[in-house]
Write a structure and sequence with these properties.
Blueprint lengths: L4 H18 L5 H11 L5 H7 L9 H11 L2 H11 L16 H4 L1 H14 L11 H12 L11 E2 L6 E4 L2 H5 L8 H10 L3 E3 L3 E4 L7 H17 L5 H14 L5 H9 L11 H12 L3 H14 L4 H20 L4 H10 L3 H8 L3 H17 L1
Antiparallel strand pairs: 1-2, 2-4, 3-4
């Protein structure tokens, strides 16, 4: 947050450091524009023109919401950790960004998986040069060639992975293959590779939702560690990563509470997630609401029913009645004509887009009742 132009500049530089710490390629100019949008301006130019040395008050919760809505999905987790004051990661490998393994590595693995399984030109049976094409893409991501940098950086907005170096250093022996230039051109023409002269960009798999694949992977890791009662710290960290990736605030605290199902800090065993769902419903964050329900149900299937049954009440009380201010008389009249409304919410809650649409339709119908 900031209240002056100097504060805005410092905020943008801090946001840039957060991106750098994870291994994301995100320019200072983009950070400045993101910071301006979070502050309620159209862009950095509008901020510079409007802001003077006089402090300007900005409501913290609204600033945070605008910030998280404006940044690319891969940046959400590290920015959440920064905003929540989590300790900086310790350096694991010299020369590797502090949070690279936490924030970029999952995208590297997901991109490798999807390219190998679904990119037609890389699959066996795709014609002459298939093995070489696979080496030029999947092989580079798995570092089978070796090279100066064994890890890529990532553009969080395009989801492209960036391997620095010339073709000879990146591909070693494969660069001397008689079909190398031909297959490189084929991959470039089909939007899979892009060589800039100093670095190779591997673009995300066409038609594949890489962000969704990473979220599935993080949820799977949370489920895996949660099954082992002797590794609760690892489970909490995995749950925290999954929650942070969908933009849940104070994810580490919430993860601890979910891990300690039955904590006495709450009135009931699932109190932590029920409290979180109330907050998300009140803020109208339906996609996060949906993903939180899905994540909790995966980790604690034995308590999923309790959480599922709470969904209609939270949406009606916290969002429809509370945030939107739709009166009880209208709501009662509407429910008389839509007795299945609660079942509709529960049946769509694990699908973010369908759930958000269901809630929007209900709100519109009640308002018009």
């Amino acid at each position: 947050m900031y209240s002056t132009i100097d504060g805005a500049k410092k905020f943008a530089k801090s946001l840039k450091r957060v991106a750098d710490d994870s291994g994301f390629v995100y320019s200072l100019k983009k950070c400045q524009n993101i910071g301006a949008v979070a502050g309620g301006y159209r862009d950095w130019f509008d901020l510079e023109r409007s802001t003077t040395s006089t402090p300007r008050l900005v409501e913290p919760a609204q600033f945070r919401k605008r910030l998280l809505d404006a940044i690319p999905s891969p940046l959400i987790a590290p920015v959440q950790a920064w905003l929540d004051g989590e300790p900086r990661e310790a350096v694991i490998d010299p020369g590797v960004p502090r949070r690279w393994y936490r924030d970029v590595f999952p995208y590297l693995m997901a991109s490798t998986k999807l390219h190998r399984a679904r990119t037609a030109l890389l699959r066996p049976g795709s014609g002459a040069g298939q093995r070489l094409r696979e080496n030029l893409v999947v092989g580079l991501m798995l570092n089978i060639h070796g090279g100066e940098r064994p890890y890529p950086l990532m553009e969080p907005d395009s989801l492209a992975l960036i391997f620095e170096g010339d073709l000879a250093s990146l591909y070693r022996r494969d660069a001397d293959h008689p079909r190398f230039e031909q297959e490189l051109a084929t991959l470039t023409e089909n939007g899979i590779l892009e060589f800039t002269g100093r670095a190779m960009r591997i673009l995300p798999p066409l038609g594949m939702d890489l962000v969704e694949e990473v979220l599935r992977s993080k949820t799977g890791m949370a489920e895996h560690w949660s099954e082992d009662s002797e590794h609760m710290r690892e489970a909490a960290n995995a749950i925290r990563d999954a929650l942070a990736a969908i933009g849940v605030s104070d994810a580490l605290r919430v993860a601890d509470a979910i891990t300690e199902q039955g904590s006495k800090a709450y009135n009931q065993p699932s109190g932590a997630v029920l409290t979180l769902l109330s907050e998300l419903a009140k803020n109208g964050e339906m996609a996060k609401f949906s993903r939180t329900v899905s994540l909790f149900s995966t980790i604690h299937p034995e308590n999923a029913g309790i959480v599922l049954q709470s969904v209609p009440a939270k949406i009606s009380a916290q969002y429809l009645g509370g945030t939107l201010g739709l009166g009880m008389s209208k709501f009662t009249a509407w429910t008389a004509k839509r007795p299945d409304w609660a079942d509709d919410l529960k049946s769509t809650v694990t699908s973010p887009a369908a759930f958000a649409q269901t809630v929007d339709v209900m709100a519109a119908e009640i308002a018009a009742a």
